[in-house]
Specification:
The protein is α+β, with helices and mostly antiparallel strands. It contains 4 helices and 4 strands, in the order αβαβαββα. The strands form 2 sheets. A two-stranded parallel ribbon has the order 1-2.
Length: 103
């Protein structure tokens, strides 16, 4: 997402990362990646990933790596839910989903 962050925000969208990792584990990842978007940590409260049905899909007690595009009405317009713990969503896919909202 970081690589495409400027294009995503130019499309009128915002990126928020949500991690169920504890701060110690996630801290090193964030320090290496240096994302421009906020990362929210919910290791003590899994309500958000549970509400999106992405918690513990792989039996690891974590949220699955997933991306949701929420439209201006608050509805999920597009989603990519991780099919494995190593799931990555290309920024191009998010940009394509955002462009489909415009038309």
């Amino acid at each position: 997402m970081q690589k495409h962050y400027d294009k995503i925000t130019e499309a009128g969208a915002e990126v928020l990362g949500i991690s169920t990792d504890d701060l110690r584990g996630a801290e090193s990842i964030v320090s290496k990646a240096r994302p421009e978007f906020p990362i929210l940590y919910s290791s003590k409260n899994n309500d958000v990933p549970i509400s999106y049905n992405v918690f513990d899909l792989h039996g690891d007690g974590l949220a699955s790596a997933s991306v949701f595009v929420i439209d201006t009405n608050g509805n999920i317009a597009w989603e990519s839910i991780g099919d494995s713990p190593a799931h990555q969503v290309p920024g191009e896919d998010v940009l394509e989903a955002l462009s489909s909202l415009e038309g």
